[in-house]
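Annotated sample (chain length 972).
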Amino acid sequence: MLADGKVVAGAAAQPRRLAVLALLARAGRMGVTREKVLALLWSDEPEDRARRSLNQAVYSLRRDLGGEDALLGSKDLRLNLDRIEVDTIEFDDAITVGDVERAIRLYAGPFLDGFVLPRAPGFEQWVEAERASLRLDYARALESAAIRANERRDTGGAVELWRRLAAIDPLNGRVAISVMNALVAAGDLEGALQHARLHEALVDQELGLPPDRDVAAFARRLRTRPVPVAEPPRPGMADAEQAVAAIASADASMVADETTPEHDAAESVPPELVGPPRDTPRSRERRWWIPVATVLAAVVAAYAIVRWRANSPTGRHPVIAVGSISDYASPDSTGIGPALRDMLATNLARSPDVTVVSGARLLEVERQMNGGAASAPGAIVPVARQAGATALVDGSLYQLVNDTLRLDLRVTSLRNGNVLRAYTVTGRDPFALADSATTLLAEYLGSTAPTGTVADATTRSVTAYRLYDDGLRSYYLGDIASAERMFDAALSQDSTFAMAAYYYALASRTTRAEFIRRLRRAVSLAGRASDRERLIIQGGWAETNNLVSLRPIAETLATRYPTEVEGHYYLGRALVNGGFFLEAIAPLRRLEVMDSLSLRSRTGRCAACEALQQQVAAYMLADSMVAAERVARRWVAARPNEWMPGVVLGRILVSLGRIDEARTAFRAPDSLDALGSVWEPMASLWTHEGEFSRADDLLRRAIATGTEGDVNEAHWFLAISLRYQGRLGEALGEARAYRRGASGNEHPAPDAVAPAALQEAQVLRELGRYREAAALFDSISRFTVAGVESSAVESGRVWSLTHEAGALAAAGDTVRLDALADTIEAYGSGSNLGRERRSHHHVRGLLLAARGADSMAVVEFRRAIFSVSAGYTRTNVEMAKALLRLGRYAEAVAILEPALRGSLEASNLYVTYPEIRLLLAQAYAGTGDRDRANRELDWVRRAWVRADAFVKPQLDLAVHTVANVGRPPVRR
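Output written by the structure step:
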């Protein structure tokens, strides 16, 4: 809506232009780059046509929004919020300041509900992510407001608010109890019981599960007097499982798209094994009796994700978990029952179209549900359900005469607990039992038995398998040292056991080189493993070595084995690495939901934490800092006693210029004992803000009193701080001190130098010693780690050779640039890192700029950009220089401003803030904004108070340039 009360109409209401308007609205004060808009809305069109379409859309929007100043910027587009009111921005502001009542009033329903934009999958995924985030904030606001209403004894208001929360999260038992409590407090006992019946019906219909135990117990107590009051909910949705449940409901449509068509043999699958049938018009008609329309809408929205989590991720096919095998055949604790359990699960997963939760995944979920401890006997049912299973296979093992083993099995439905089938098989060894049982179970499930024997895909040694299984249990209980010994012992029994080799690598507690050596061994054996295990091993190798094969491996693993977290994690990583930042959100959110229990566990792997961290990275790389902040805050809420989420949130707040909030975020992890003093974030913050004396004092104290690791890191960051101050001679000394400390255990080839020298080479460049810098970068490019894939080595070479090209260009030596660009392109083509695949464009841009072809150089630099804020910031700077020479000042501003949001020690390591700000001053002056130009110059003046003598003339030159920008040249 415009400030004068007019509603957006005309061309602005057309679908594609409305989509542009939606992107601008959610970007808020930060704005959005044209490249991002093009990527989301016109990715299927040639670049020239797409840019013309965007230009026309911008023109039409400005016209229909009331004038040129309604939409600001050229490279980065943003709405003029002095003229235009945006309800989602007002909603975000209300959430930020804690005005939950206003936030609830502003929330008008799902974001862009019903809006469809054909041929724009990236935009659709962006809408889903924004919709989920807004809905989660709304849920938190409702809960907070309901708790406040309870506290002030506003019973009517509390009932209304709790009911609204139940409408968007209808299957949440804790919310249901809160509704019932509020109704009891309002004197509506029958209403509370009716809500319990409604909740019971929804859980049965949508999950196929018995009533929530706590809800049912509370309802039973309500039917007797006096009326009790259940335990009130904790405020703030701090419980990680509930927060993730809200996300799951919000992400329903994303997961609905992932279900696969029914297999031809689906009708042969026993219906009692699978969840509710697909939603048909007739089945929807049977829902007419649900009394609250909003609850019905929420149920329909949540249906797909609920079915996916609790029933089958592959349509009507069941998901099998293999439970305990009680061992009555072995006289002591050395029995093979547990190993037989994993053996059967592995073999059954080899059958076509049968989805089986792996034994390792069950162990992981078991640890999460028991706080890191082993499960009590009989606790496998809730574990299997949590892992996504719909049916359980378990049994007993007996010893018969003549060394024959007998395995009694039963198949139980996890919907209702009914025993569906029972089988008995006999054999001479557990491998024969697993093969025979698999044949029977596969037939029952409408599939066929796998070819060969389970021993072909695992090991022929019973002892090796038993040791491997013991290692798995130790690994998932967090006893990594014992696990490593068990896996090593298993390999000593059978050196070809692929999964034992894989976990032996994961349990490695030595050097990275040893981890890679072990993992390479597992890869060499992967051809003998089952298809699922082979993909997991190869995916781990591809991720470690940045291989382009990571994405296809991940897509295959996530599609064919959807209950395993590795496929979704690998897919998210592949998409982030490849530059498909917003596409990565869907698989990462799916992983977060799948592994939600790990958020409240303090031992073992937290895959959901990794998913949250990767989501933050994806949004930051997409320069969507507001979205990154929302995910980071969700992570902090889920893991309040962990240091990493607070540090990540603080870094985002620094990039947004919210320094006081960043200090608060950094202070929280600094008080934790997990890693002792977390001093580095504060040093980065002070360097970012130009408070160099504070940063330097902190870093020098760390050098004087810290551990060896602290000392090295402090040298690294002190070198950065000194570079920002123009004290390059001192910075060179600190960079060399870091190199000595960090390279102590590395022994490169005679012509190679360890990557610890990267900052030293950069300081040499800033000192004007370009050829020394180029030579050092070249030596770094020759460094290798023993055993790594050649493509990983080449990926590292791309990075170092790109820096070398920059140093040569700065020296005026362009002879080698063309050949370097070709080499970098060849090396980068084998990497799954989008930055490496684009780096050759940076070098070609340098060559064109040196030849005076600035317009063509700008095109190449633009092609080189992986992320405007967190890619290779040197590209931003070189592109800005060409734009300034062309007089395209606004474009220079647009490419330089995001460069200030990069990480000091990563994307911004190869350029300093003073260099960026001196260029920004010239760009601002060219646009007529001399106040901003002078502020940038003042920042550099303060930073360079103690700068080396040869540095300060750069400031004088910039001052002169700013003063004369836009003035006609003086003729001589």
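Annotation: The radius of gyration is 31 Å.
Annotation: Residues 1-35+46-85 form one domain.
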